[in-house]
Amino acid sequence: MARIIQKYGGSSVATVELIKEVAKRAITAKNEGNEVVVVLSAMKGDTDRLLKLAHSLHPSPEPRELDNLLITGEVISVSLFAMACQSLGEKVKSFLGFQAGIKTDDAHGRARILEVEPARIKTELAKGRIAVVAGFQGINRFNDLTTLGRGGSDTTAVALAVALGADICEIYTDVDGIYTTDPHIHKNARKIDKICYEEMLELASLGAKVMEIRSVELGLNYGVKIHVRHAHSQATGTLIVEEDSDMEKTPVRGVTHSVNEARITLQRVPDKPGVAARILSLISKAGIVVDMIIQNQSVSSEPIDGITHWTDFSFTVPATDFAKTMELMKETGREIEVGQVVGDDNIAKVSIVGVGMRNHAGVATLMFQTMAREGINISMISTSEIKISCIIEKKYAELAVRSLHDAFELEKA
Amino acid sequence: MARIIQKYGGSSVATVELIKEVAKRAITAKNEGNEVVVVLSAMKGDTDRLLKLAHSLHPSPEPRELDNLLITGEVISVSLFAMACQSLGEKVKSFLGFQAGIKTDDAHGRARILEVEPARIKTELAKGRIAVVAGFQGINRFNDLTTLGRGGSDTTAVALAVALGADICEIYTDVDGIYTTDPHIHKNARKIDKICYEEMLELASLGAKVMEIRSVELGLNYGVKIHVRHAHSQATGTLIVEEDSDMEKTPVRGVTHSVNEARITLQRVPDKPGVAARILSLISKAGIVVDMIIQNQSVSSEPIDGITHWTDFSFTVPATDFAKTMELMKETGREIEVGQVVGDDNIAKVSIVGVGMRNHAGVATLMFQTMAREGINISMISTSEIKISCIIEKKYAELAVRSLHDAFELEKA
User: Fold this and answer.
1) What is the predicted pLDDT for the residue at A336?
2) Mean pLDDT rounded to a whole number for chain A
3) Which residue of B has its CA nearest to A15?
4) Which CATH code fits B3-242?
5) A19, A65, A86: residue with CB nearest B79
């Protein structure tokens, strides 16, 4: 007997017919001798409908009131799911987030789970019932209802898995699992059978379409085994687990790209302490998130005003913040007397990810060679232990992804 | 400064435009220096939409699960109302029933309020905010959400008025108030300015279209001044208050009728102890609600099996239970050896109601004379201290109402 958390997304409960289907799936798992806790999102379209109503009344509703409105979507899902189970003769109880003991902080609209007190859920499981919990919501210390933000139902599921010591947390969605790259870009993209948390986090742009990244972090921190799979297929999907020695045999797990960033470079920056901080503090004060930061070894020249070393300082920001960042940097550039501020939002970031690359020499070499063979110039490089990212011209993004997928033979299991 | 409860029904919050209108009304009351608590029903149509979803999954969903589903309607109303207030620059907070301290018993779908702990509401009022509370819902001792059944938002409003010691409980609806009779039946029907709780209870069939009768009982028990009025008119409506000496000057407050009952008569019933109980216990066991019960003085005859006194025993039940009741009574009739069981669902009940009739002789006489003048035969009569009801042939129902309205000059204030 295993204790299983099953989370179904909005598209899997979009109609009463689909709700019946997933109810059957949960019942099957229970009939196989397991304890089953189901976590649901709102029926697809419901949250948008509610947001539209809200915005017809207020351009930016108070987050507390918006939370009161939005929690209803998941409450509707769980009560209908319970009825579907009951019509199939199954014992079940539905719970709002607060009834399932999901306690959060006070940040309405993007609350973090502080604690889960799943006593009631345990009681229901002990009575042989399926417990179905409204995802995406909790309660704060003031007894106000909160929502967890985008993808919050995944977080609810993983947090319940932690609190209940579940054997597995199944994330049911409308895709088969995590792919080596976006199947729309490369026809040879292959479903990954097993991936470790760290790889999943680095493949965020691939994974985010499937599973909220915060919940993967939670899985990592508490070692929750996660199974991402299709809600209407019996095929196994992708297991997200701790790194094992087997995984290290594969140098690259997946290739991903993003075209939503822009690069800014401050040329000929005086190389003295505090300059990088001064540049970035302005940006963070403006609420802009910096992704890559590159500063190369400085070069020396004839002293000017006593400064003998200079460097170029580059970073990337979301493309939507490009204009604002350029403005800020031109001002800063004048103040700290840099050579020139240049920027480019016609870029793409292409990354290869894999825990195996730690033990495989030549991964970077093969990456750069592949790009060169295709005539793609690399303007920035950044690496972590398990990831190499390159900034290239935007028009080459898909070509780069396909070439790298082929070069590292990701189509092979 | 007064403390005011304002309850708006589903038709008054059916669209975001209407929600804005009633938000303005609440803000006006607050700007006049009052403390304002608003209680809302679900947007018109929402509850039906949810019920339809539920019934597409289960013919009779478990009441606990149905309650989880149905509470969302009122939660949506209150959060949207709060946003409407905020867009008008007003300070406001919305509350689910449980957050407003509405504690109920465990009877899902028709829960009774056991206690109201309005500490949070008081806090918000003290901070100068409008508090808006989801009607129709509460929480039980198991921390499960409950609904109060039909018209439950009225009960929420009156219960909050009691708990908060409100000066008045305003019930906003889509009619002007309570009328002397149904304006569709008599063009001279007149809006009643002031009515006492007891009259309102006896006029249930008139009042029920406007206000849930349970909440009137609650108002009676705690002396809550209730004002039933139109949500989109400034005119005063009908005040429901304690009886005063002024009211006793009017013998009849209103005329009402019902065509949804059926009469059953057991003829020549042996007049011995326990017979009436035996007849009615079967009916109540079947869950059928008996309205009027009539048993006249028995008549004597030659002894048969030692019995010398006989009587006819009549009662009325809802028309929908007529066939079932007839069946039960024929069986019972054979057992206790009555003469014959006859029934009629082609009947109407016409009633006149008024606390003043206690002090006015001749009210019954005028009623019976009026019926006789119109050629209407009365088949049963039942009276209480403030009400006289007659069972007549159904086709005369509206004629009887109009004639009685004229005879007692109810068109005159």
Assistant:
1) 84
2) 93
3) B53
4) 3.40.1160.10
5) A65
pLDDT given at position A287: 86
Quick one: pLDDT band at residue A297, thresholds 50, 70, 90? confident
Strands A194-196 and A238-241: parallel
CA distance B80 to chain A (A): 6
Domain A245-413, CATH among 3.20.20.70, 3.30.540.10, 3.40.50.720, 3.30.2130.10: 3.30.2130.10
Q: Could you give the angle at the alpha carbon of B334 between the alpha carbons of B331 and B339, nearest 5°?
A: 120
Please give the pLDDT value at position B87: 97
Cα B378 from Cα B371, distance rounded (Å):
8
Nearest CA in chain B to A58: B87
CA distance A341 to A268: 9
Question: Higher-confidence residue: B237 or A337?
Answer: B237
The neighbouring-strand residues paired with A341 are A266
* Helix/strand/coil for B42: coil
Top residue of A13, A60, A74, A80 to mutate, by most chain B CBs within 10 Å, is: A80
Alpha-carbon distance of B200 to B178, in angstroms, equals 9
Q: Please answer yes or no on whether A84 and B57 come within 8 Å at the CB atom.
A: yes
Least reliable range by pLDDT among A119-123, B200-204, B392-396: B200-204
Distance CA B207, CA B351 (A): 13
Could you tell me which residue, B301 or A373, shows the higher pLDDT?
A373
Q: Which two tokens stand for residue B241?
A: 């208050």
Q: Say if CB A102 and CB A156 are below 8 A apart.
A: yes
> pLDDT of A44-57, one tens digit each?
999 999 999 999 99
Give the whole-angstrom CA distance, residue B160 versus residue A9: 39
Q: CB–CB of B66 and A53 under 8 A?
A: no
For chain A, the structural domain boundaries read 3-242, 245-413
> Over chain B, what is the mean pLDDT?
93
- Split at pLDDT 50, 70, 90, the class of B120 is very high
Q: Please enumerate in sequence order all residues whose Cβ is within 8 A of that of A369, keeping only pairs 6 or more positions apart, or say none.
A: A407
Please indicate whether, in this complex, the C-beta atoms of B75 and A82 are within 8 angstroms of each other.
no
Strands (E), B182-339: 194-196, 226-230, 238-241, 254-258, 261-270, 293-295, 299-304, 307-318
Compute the average pLDDT of residues B83-110: 97
